[in-house]
Amino acid sequence: MGAQHDKAKGLEGHEIQNAQLRAMVKLGVAITAATVAILVAEFLRCRTRPLPASGWLGLLALAGAEWLMFRGIQPVATYFTPIAWTAYILLADAAVFAVTGRSRLREAPRAFAQVALLSVPLWLIFEAYNLRLENWTYVGLPMSWLASQFGYAWSFATITPAIFVTADVVESFGWFARPAQPVRFSSAYERVSIALGVALLAVPLVAPRYVAARLFALVWLGFLFLLDPINHRLHLPSLEGDLAAGRRGRLYSLLVSGWVCGWLWEFWNYWAAAKWHYIFPMFEQWKIFEMPAPGYFGFLPFALECFVMYVFAARLLGWLPVGKPKS
């Protein structure tokens, strides 16, 4: 009788856990759908010309990839994440053109290719941190080493472009176009910010592993505090320079982009055959899709980091000249 009772309790607990999982997935789908609906509504309100062919191509590719992925058809099921994001980038860039008459892919395809190229090593920096912090792993990868590395590279190459083009979409709506009061930053602030950035990036590396595993939030902030003041001092595009000039568009659009991309990343990742799986040692019982719920707020500063890291790295490679940024 005791064994049967324990088995019944175990089954009941399993059912409760499954019900909670289904509820969290439904919540994630609802938030993702609401986020996308707002973007679509604003696009329809603001567009000044028809969506170009590249946008329809991206939309059809995305819909087709979803259909094939849910049916487990290879190789789409395995490579769904980079396929979806490539299609999304085409669609989003076309949406910007439909609103503003300008787009990155049309006006500066070489520069956009450089963004994609740099996105790979920049994300590998976070992968290097993860070797110690062990906050995520990858599952369902192809057995072939070459095939899996191809999937990694393609996926990583879409990260920064997706952040940038989504920010372009948000900025095209004019939500943050109104000039604001300039914010002045002293040299002392910049020195403190750089020192803080160094500390935030160093602590997870020197703390005991069981402590470091809980500190990835410091990495999401460290490069922002470290590099943005340096970019400003070099007269490169910077968030600090924008705020000092009374501009808020880039900052707020990147934050919104982080929110949008975060939900889309996790939404598309959840059903993909090859995906990342979070093993963060906190909030595991509060997962929405594969991500613990508080982690979604980490996508906001991550988007800002993508910007400051790209600007700094592009300057090191000579892709951005030192000089007064354009107004």
Account of the protein in words:
The protein is mainly α and 327 residues long. The chain has one domain. The protein contains 13 helices and 4 strands. The protein has helices at 2-46, 53-70, 80-100, 104-107, 109-133, 145-157, 159-172, 187-206, 209-212, 216-233, 239-244, 249-271, 299-316, and strands at residues 136-139, 275-278, 287-288, 291-292. The strands form 2 sheets. Strands 1-2 form a two-stranded antiparallel sheet. Strands 3-4 form a two-stranded antiparallel sheet. A hairpin with a 2-residue loop joins strand 3 (287-288) and strand 4 (291-292). The protein is globular, with a radius of gyration of 21 Å. The N and C termini lie far apart (78 Å). The model has no long low-confidence stretch (mean pLDDT 91).
Name the features:
327 residues, two-stranded antiparallel sheet, 13 helices, 4 strands, mainly alpha
Short description:
The protein is mainly alpha-helical and 327 residues long.
- List unreliable stretches of 5+ residues: none
Largest sheet: 2 strands, antiparallel
* Overall outline: globular
The helix-strand sequence is: HHHHHEHHHHHHHEEEH
Could you give the count of β-strands? 4
Strand order, biggest sheet? 1-2
Q: Give the helix proportion (percent range).
A: over 70%
Rg over CA atoms, rounded to whole Å, is 21 Å
Coarse structural class:
mainly alpha
Strand content: under 5%
| Overall tally of domains | 1
Give the helix tally.
Answer: 13
Mean pLDDT: 91
Query: In angstroms, what separates the terminal alpha carbons?
Result: 78 Å
